[in-house]
Amino acid sequence: MADDAAKKPAAKKPAAKKAAAKPATSKKPAAARNPKDVVLLSGGNPQITKADGDAPVQAYIAAMPEWKSDVGRRLDALIEQALPGVRKAVRWNSPFYGLEGMGWIVSYHCFTKYVKVTFLNGTTLDPLPPGPSKDPDTRYLDIHEDGELDEAQFVEWVKQAGARPGWDGFQRSAASPTAA
Q: Is 159 domain-assigned?
């Protein structure tokens, strides 16, 4: 029997799995990377690291896919026009705009077929932006590729929003020089 065991071929070892090559990671902050290197999340929304200032917002806009990047540039310019000195940041993979001491008032986010603009104090605007929200204070405006943006109305909404308390973190800003 010992001879039988010796005649059996040795059991084959399973082939070693080759480790998948990991893409090289950049040591540069997201704002300094090439927009082509930015990861696009569900719906094509750019994944940009949380940061304050214009640079991360511009990195987000540059990484917005296809026609959405043009929309992002236009929204950014209109918001700056309506609110000179506006504060900018990227939070939750979306550009946020606000005023010092007033909180965040507007943001936008990429979805597969549209860019969703969020007015964080939207229920105080006249006329109301068209999209309702589960949040009692928020209203939305969806911009589709073939849709037109009423720029005059958008600028008016941004100006109105900038004159009212916005959203500060997870609580509404209660203190404001213009609060009623």
A: yes
For residue range 6-17, list pLDDT tens digits in order.
555 555 555 544
pTM listed for this prediction: 0.74
Domain assignment of residue 90, given as a range: 38-168
Q: What CATH number does residue 74 fall under? A: 3.90.1150.200
Strands (E), 28-150: 51-52, 87-91, 94-99, 103-110, 114-119, 139-144
7: Cβ–Cβ under 8 A, 6 or more apart, which residues? none
pLDDT tens across 42-89, in order? 788 899 999 999 999 999 999 999 999 999 999 999 999 999 999 999
φ, ψ (nearest 5 deg) of residue 169? 70, -125
Tell me the one-letter amino acid at 152: A
For residue 109, tell me if it sits in a domain: yes
* 3-state secondary structure at position 122: helix
Q: Decide: 79 and 121 in contact? Cβ < 8 Å.
A: no
